[in-house]
Every structure is written in structure tokens, then in C-alpha cells.
Specification:
Blueprint: H1 15-43, H2 47-79, H3 84-112, H4 120-152, H5 155-168
Length: 173
């Protein structure tokens, strides 16, 4: 059986919309993750649960890396040093990325190799922490950061962002 990452969007004509589409997927997958962990806690591991673990692993492994690249290599350089407010937001969001990545390093082996999950409480603790960090980060961006950007980024900049994001997904990058 082959697992494959499915890009959350096919439309890269607006970089902010790309980021929003990833956020929607992160929130949805976070709910899926917590529901799955609840089923594993109550019912134990089975073939369907293992399949879902690996699917989530495949999604998060690629989506987090792409999304953080989109922000750190495309968005942040475009807006850094424009205001103290934005620079402070960028710093906080970059710290979020580090925390999310650290939490993922702990959770990833369990989701990637569900047959080795023996400590269900540890799985629950790691999944809750990872989902919480991811959700809080997405909320921070959606409610505080992106509305500020919508006011400051013109259509040309948003198109350019989308093009650069699409290029990051080309093979060999």
C-alpha cells in the first residue's frame, strides 16, 4: 500500500490563500488525530487505526515542512523590517514553528510505525500537545497576523508569493 501526500491546494495564484488552505487542513487533521487517538485508547490498535496513523504521518511530515518553508522563505522575507509589530509577530511565529517541529519529532515515530505503539497514554499526551501547538499557531496567524497582512500586501505581492510557493514544490527543491 502506497501513502502519498495530497497538496491542500491546487491554486497558487494567491500566496495568502495558500496559507489559509493549509490552516484549514491543519485544523481538520488535528480533529482527526485526536479522534483517532481516542479510538486507539478505547479500542486498541487495529488495521484501520494503523492505516489512519500512517496517513496522518504522511500528511504532517510533508505539510508542516512545506507550510513552514512558505512562511519562512517566502512570506517573512517579504514583510520583515516593515514595522516593529510585524517583526514581533514574525519572531513569535518562528518560535511556534520550532515548538511544533519539536513536538512532531516526538509524535512522528509513533504515527509512522503504529505497530510499535505500546504506550497509549504517551501517544495521547504527545498528540494532544502537538495538536494544541498547531491549533494555537494557526489561530494566532488567522486572527492576528494574516488580517494585518491582508491590509499590507498588494495583489502583485500575493501573486508573487503564490508563484514562489509553487516553485518550492517542484521536484528537486
Amino acid at each position: 500500500m502506497q501513502f502519498q501526500f495530497l497538496e491542500p491546494t491546487e491554486d497558487f495564484s494567491d500566496g495568502l490563500k495558500v496559507l489559509y488552505s493549509y490552516h484549514e487542513q491543519f485544523l481538520e487533521r488535528g480533529r482527526e488525530l485526536l479522534a483517532l487517538v481516542g479510538r486507539i485508547i478505547s479500542d486498541g490498535m487495529n488495521e484501520q487505526h494503523a492505516y489512519q496513523c500512517v496517513q496522518l504521518h504522511c500528511f504532517y511530515q510533508r505539510a508542516n515542512a512545506l507550510h513552514h518553508q512558505d512562511e519562512e522563505r517566502v512570506l517573512f522575507p517579504l514583510i520583515v523590517h516593515r514595522s516593529f509589530l510585524i517583526d514581533g509577530m514574525i519572531e513569535r511565529l518562528a518560535l511556534d514553528h520550532e515548538e511544533i517541529e519539536e513536538a512532531w519529532v516526538e509524535l512522528a515515530p509513533m504515527l509512522g510505525r503504529p505497530e510499535h505503539i505500546v504506550d497509549r497514554e504517551k501517544l495521547k499526551r504527545l498528540a494532544l500537545e502537538f495538536e494544541k501547538l498547531q491549533r494555537e499557531h494557526v489561530t494566532r496567524e488567522n486572527e492576528d497576523f494574516f488580517p494585518t497582512l491582508e491590509e499590507r500586501l498588494g495583489p502583485e505581492q500575493r501573486i508573487e508569493m503564490g508563484e514562489k510557493m509553487a516553485n518550492l514544490r517542484k521536484p528537486g527543491r
